[in-house]
Design goal:
Distance between the termini: 95 Å
Largest sheet: none
Radius of gyration: 21 Å
Order of helices and strands: HHHHHHHHH
Length: 178
């Protein structure tokens, strides 16, 4: 039985309502049905549910499958979710970097924050410089909100202060004229 887009959207809404009520298993089942029916927002959420074990045991293979499907359907932050998974769960910086760049290329400003955190963690000079640029762009963006915006501001402020202290040029002692 094929579910139409309008019906898939209704199922997705019911899944979100169940999630708001902490009915994780019900939310997962409805979200999966909506995702299988083509709802792209449901695809992203199903990917996250599988990554995090919400309403269903953790399954990283299926988390990647659904997140990739959402990315292919045009959801940029699905790439960010994949990158975060590679960074935090597998410590695979190269794959994380590839996915962060894909997300940034599709204008996901939250990817700039999370990619900056990876670069800072690597703690190389060129990585820190790149992180500063990405954080500045994220803070200036109109599309970074709430906790992510605040976190980006805080990290940028700390990093800017730290960088300025490391690169401060001191003037040679000026002789005092009597």
């Amino acid at each position: 039985m094929k579910i139409l887009a309008d019906e898939a959207e209704k199922i997705y809404s019911k899944a979100c309502e169940a999630l708001d009520k902490n009915q994780f298993k019900k939310s997962f089942e409805l979200m999966l049905l909506a995702a299988k029916s083509g709802n792209v927002n449901a695809k992203v959420n199903v990917g996250c549910f599988y990554f995090d074990g919400v309403g269903h045991p953790t399954d990283t293979r299926l988390g990647l499958k659904w997140s990739r499907a959402a990315y292919i359907d045009g959801i940029a932050y699905a790439a960010t979710n994949i990158a975060i998974f590679f960074h935090k769960n597998l410590l695979n910086y190269k794959r994380a970097e590839i996915w962060f760049k894909k997300a940034i290329g599709k204008n996901d400003d939250s990817a700039k924050l999370y990619y900056s955190k990876l670069l800072i963690e690597r703690n190389r000079k060129n990585s820190i410089d790149k992180a500063l640029i990405l954080l500045q762009e994220a803070v200036e963006s109109e599309f970074l909100f709430g906790d992510e915006f605040k976190e980006a501001q805080e990290i940028l402020a700390k990093l800017t202060t730290h960088t300025q202290q490391d690169t401060q040029i001191t003037e040679p002692d000026t002789p005092v004229l009597l």
